[in-house]
């Protein structure tokens, strides 16, 4: 697909598709599910190149959905960061528990 062939209406639809994908990913993450963003980067890359190829007057119409996409990405990034911190905390707690059990086992044998 040649990005310069994409019309503003098609680019707007692509931005909406990307935003919907991000919303689904954020909801899945909130539900504790694994999130896959396969293909999103390529989709957004093609869309952005298509927007850049437009005359300025045509591309300005796409600013609101582009800003919405950026906002959605920032929210997803925050949610992913929080999920990562929670996972790291759980692993640290598990490691602490394992060290305590190991120390107790050594003391009970000694």
Describe what this molecule looks like in 3D.
- The chain has 110 residues and is mostly helical.
- It has one domain.
- The protein has four helices and no strands.
- Helix 1 packs antiparallel against helix 2 and helix 1 runs parallel beside helix 4.
- The longest helix has 47 residues.
- The N and C termini lie far apart (71 Å).
- 13% of the residues are buried.
Specify Rg, calculated over alpha carbons. Answer: 22 Å
Element string (H = helix, E = strand): HHHH
Classify the secondary structure makeup into a structural class. mainly alpha
Number of helices: 4
**Any idea what the shape is?**
rod-shaped
| Mean of all residue-level pLDDT scores | 87
Give the low-confidence spans. none
Note the main sheet.
none
Q: How far is the N terminus from the C terminus? A: 71 Å
Helix content: over 70%
Q: Count the E strands.
A: 0
Query: What is the domain tally?
Result: 1
């Amino acid at each position: 697909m040649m990005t310069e062939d994409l019309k503003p209406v098609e680019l707007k639809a692509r931005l909406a598709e990307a935003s919907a994908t991000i919303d689904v990913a954020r909801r899945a993450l909130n539900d504790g599910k694994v999130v896959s963003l396969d293909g999103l980067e390529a989709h957004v890359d093609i869309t952005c190149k298509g927007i850049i190829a437009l005359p300025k007057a045509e591309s300005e119409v796409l600013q609101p959905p582009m800003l919405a996409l950026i906002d959605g990405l920032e929210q997803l990034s925050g949610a992913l960061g929080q999920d990562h911190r929670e996972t790291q905390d759980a692993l640290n707690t598990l490691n602490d528990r394992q060290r305590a059990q190991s120390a107790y086992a050594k003391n009970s044998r000694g």
